Amino acid sequence: MNNITPYSSPHYFIYLLLLLLPIMIGLWFGKRFKFYDFIATVVILIITFFGGNMSQGLSLIFYILYEMLLVFVYLSYRRKKNNFWVFTSFVVLAIIPLVFVKLDPLLKNATISLFGFMGISYLTFKAVEIIMEIRDGAIKDIKPYEFLRFLLFFPTISSGPIDRFRRFQKDVVKVPTRDEYVELLHSGVNKLMQGLLYKFIIGYFFGTLLLPKVQILVMSYRDQAPLGISWALVAYMYVYSMYLFFDFAGYSLFAVSISNFMGVKTPMNFRAPFKSHNIKDFWNRWHITLSFWFRDFIYMRLMFTVIKHKWMKNRVTIANFGYITLFLIMGFWHGETWYYIVYGIFHACAMITNDAWLRFKKKHRKKIPSNKFTEAFAIFLTFNVVCFSFLIFSGILNTLWFS
């Protein structure tokens, strides 16, 4: 049996349903079968990582042991001391496996991907969050099995949403009442149906049926227009944007749905992002758990450090520096190719422009109209700015211009 990517095939959903039934029956009667939860997790991990190719599974085991060692060594240290550079060293050590994996395609070194397995980014975000919150004193104690349960929570293991340890811990320790669990079941069923619609119907239409045909049309104009820019490329921009949203949002809905069936209120990852009024609003609606993770653990901490050490004095300059740093990191996280980096820079510039507009609007509030038309125009403009950024992100320009 080959590895099965989560939520990608009917087989996975069949295995999932069979494994979930005892968990759901237990919760219905007010019980959590912790040992069975462990067994179900092991089965899903075997299906996902230990199929025909066991290298991913072995990498996962090695990675978990490595991160666990870091977390508990730092926890032991933090109980006695709180040195900034020691903390920074542990954070760097925690992200090194992810850095190796991200550098692998660039260096083309087969030995560097020792940690290469599906979902390493999201597990790393969780591990780093724990180290940071231990440093802050928000997490004062954590047991090895709690660490494993949090990192290996199988509904979200491959692509999120990225939960927070303390929020997750409250859910898995508490057993919901019958009425609370009925609400979770109702929510889970609704999200499951919505996820099926998004990923396997709408996402399939845009991604499998439509996108390849539009791409062929784009390439047909390669030598017929300056830089190959054509109306077909505009069509590709919108089709790809729809595919990207419905495919990923569908996956995220599955993850939240299965979490609900297990009595866990995993946070939502998307909230009508194409209804955003500006680019900042968009990042509060798109891949929410990731954008909030970057905001809380990179942007806000960077801002605090810059202000504390007085590296810059002007608040606007500080914020702009933070945007550029944040979105460059996000771009590099997606991959070491020019279009991911440009995608990050584009969004940093969009955030800087948006802040400048909001400051201007605040000063000239009486002169700038605010009505349904301006609101609709703001949504339309934001939608097109976002879609253009996804055109960059898609890599089609790299294919069109350089391949």
TrEMBL record:
<comment type="pathway">
    <text>Cell wall biogenesis; lipoteichoic acid biosynthesis.</text>
</comment>
<feature type="transmembrane region" description="Helical">
    <location>
        <begin position="84"/>
        <end position="100"/>
    </location>
</feature>
<feature type="transmembrane region" description="Helical">
    <location>
        <begin position="379"/>
        <end position="402"/>
    </location>
</feature>
<feature type="transmembrane region" description="Helical">
    <location>
        <begin position="316"/>
        <end position="334"/>
    </location>
</feature>
<keyword id="KW-0808">Transferase</keyword>
<feature type="transmembrane region" description="Helical">
    <location>
        <begin position="35"/>
        <end position="54"/>
    </location>
</feature>
<keyword id="KW-1133">Transmembrane helix</keyword>
<comment type="function">
    <text>O-acyltransferase that catalyzes D-alanylation of both teichoic acid and lipoteichoic acid (LTA). D-alanylation of LTA plays an important role in modulating the properties of the cell wall in Gram-positive bacteria, influencing the net charge of the cell wall. Catalyzes D-alanylation from DltC carrier protein.</text>
</comment>
<keyword id="KW-0812">Transmembrane</keyword>
<dbReference type="InterPro" id="IPR024024">
    <property type="entry name" value="DltB"/>
</dbReference>
<comment type="similarity">
    <text>Belongs to the membrane-bound acyltransferase family.</text>
</comment>
<feature type="transmembrane region" description="Helical">
    <location>
        <begin position="196"/>
        <end position="218"/>
    </location>
</feature>
<dbReference type="GO" id="GO:0005886">
    <property type="term" value="C:plasma membrane"/>
</dbReference>
<keyword id="KW-0472">Membrane</keyword>
<feature type="transmembrane region" description="Helical">
    <location>
        <begin position="340"/>
        <end position="358"/>
    </location>
</feature>
<dbReference type="Pfam" id="PF03062">
    <property type="entry name" value="MBOAT"/>
</dbReference>
<feature type="transmembrane region" description="Helical">
    <location>
        <begin position="106"/>
        <end position="125"/>
    </location>
</feature>
<keyword id="KW-1003">Cell membrane</keyword>
<dbReference type="GO" id="GO:0016746">
    <property type="term" value="F:acyltransferase activity"/>
</dbReference>
<feature type="transmembrane region" description="Helical">
    <location>
        <begin position="12"/>
        <end position="30"/>
    </location>
</feature>
<dbReference type="InterPro" id="IPR024194">
    <property type="entry name" value="Ac/AlaTfrase_AlgI/DltB"/>
</dbReference>
<dbReference type="GO" id="GO:0070395">
    <property type="term" value="P:lipoteichoic acid biosynthetic process"/>
</dbReference>
<feature type="transmembrane region" description="Helical">
    <location>
        <begin position="60"/>
        <end position="77"/>
    </location>
</feature>
<protein>
    <recommendedName>
        <fullName>Teichoic acid D-alanyltransferase</fullName>
        <ecNumber>2.3.1.-</ecNumber>
    </recommendedName>
</protein>
<dbReference type="InterPro" id="IPR004299">
    <property type="entry name" value="MBOAT_fam"/>
</dbReference>
<dbReference type="InterPro" id="IPR051085">
    <property type="entry name" value="MB_O-acyltransferase"/>
</dbReference>
<keyword id="KW-0012">Acyltransferase</keyword>
